[in-house]
Design goal:
- By secondary structure, the chain is α+β, with helices and mostly antiparallel strands.
- The protein has 3 domains: 6-61, Structural Genomics Hypothetical 15.5 Kd Protein In mrcA-pckA Intergenic Region, Chain A; 67-129 and 217-244, Pseudouridine synthase I, catalytic domain, N-terminal subdomain (Alpha-Beta Plaits, 2-Layer Sandwich); 136-211, Alpha-Beta Plaits, CATH 3.30.70.1560.
- The protein has 8 helices and 15 strands.
- The strands form 3 sheets. Strands 7, 8, 9, 10, 11, 12, 13, 14 and 15 form a 9-stranded mixed β-sheet that branches. A 4-stranded antiparallel β-sheet has the order 3-2-5-6, with no helix packed on it.
- Strand 2 (32-34) and strand 3 (37-38) form a beta hairpin.
- The protein starts with 5 loop residues before the first strand and ends with a helix.
- Bound molecules: uracil.
């Protein structure tokens, strides 16, 4: 974390409150409180280590990097340039979007569940790199009953188009007649749907329950988001297979 004092307008800009010009103007207009007190000097030095900015009646703790989790609802695209459905970024406050958060591994438009977002490129890389193989846990409802043969095929590996070798689930279990829980090490395009399709079945509903050791909080409703706090990040950083073994 950065501890050096910075100019107020710069702190605002870094948190996604607009261009330098916009931030300077908002401070001069008396719209910004620093740790509870209005400050109208854009060049005032503030300490990012203990900085709470208030704008439009909303308090924002300064965060050098943004780490966020969302319960993605169905019917939203994980893209800044969504074409057929609204974007998940429309569910976040504008400053988070403005500071450039990206999805850490996408979910399909019709999939639901745990979605991470961040503006920390190294974190995104660590979480999505095929070399790291962070496990993703999905619950899928299928069109046809989940047979033993289907579970065996998913465990031993199925051949997908454009893949050089069969891909196996890290784990796979039947939950009820048409549902299964599937854990994957990769994050390939439509991977669950294609793997289930390769067994002759079809995914009707797909939900991501967990990424590594981190599980979607049960009290976060679809469409809801919250910051990832230090303990959440620690849990995610322990999610690589080498750290888990
Ligand atoms: N696999 C899929 O097929 N879809 C998702 O949204 C995620 C994983």
């Amino acid at each position: 974390m950065q501890h050096r004092p910075m100019k107020l307008y710069h702190a605002l800009q870094s948190q996604g409150f607009g261009t330098r010009k916009v931030c300077v103007a908002r401070v001069r207009a008396g719209e910004v409180a620093v740790n509870g007190e209005v400050c109208d000097d854009p060049e005032a030095r503030v300490d990012p280590a203990r900085l709470e900015l208030t704008l439009d009646g909303v308090a924002w703790a300064y965060r050098e990097k943004a780490y966020v989790l969302m319960h993605k609802p169905a019917g939203y695209e994980c893209s800044h340039h969504a074409s057929h459905h609204p974007s998940v970024f429309a569910l976040l406050p504008p400053p988070l979007v403005q500071r450039g958060v990206q999805c850490v591994g996408r979910l399909d438009q019709d999939s639901t569940g745990l979605l991470l977002l961040s503006d920390d490129g190294q974190f995104i890389h660590r979480m999505t790199s095929p070399k790291k193989g962070v496990a993703k846990v999905y619950r899928a409802v299928c069109a046809e009953p989940v047979s033993d043969a289907m579970l065996d095929a998913l465990r031993s590996g199925v051949q997908l188009n454009d893949e050089p070798a069969p891909i196996a689930a890290l784990a796979c279990e039947r939950l009820d007649e048409r549902s299964l829980r599937l854990t994957l090490a990769e994050g390939k395009y439509h991977q669950v749907k294609r793997m289930v399709g390769a067994t002759g079945n079809r995914v009707e509903r797909l939900h991501r329950e967990a990424i590594g050791l981190f599980t979607l909080p049960a009290d976060l409703p679809p469409g809801g988001w919250r910051w990832l706090e230090t303990d959440d990040l620690k849990q995610l950083e322990q999610s690589w297979p080498s750290a888990m073994s």
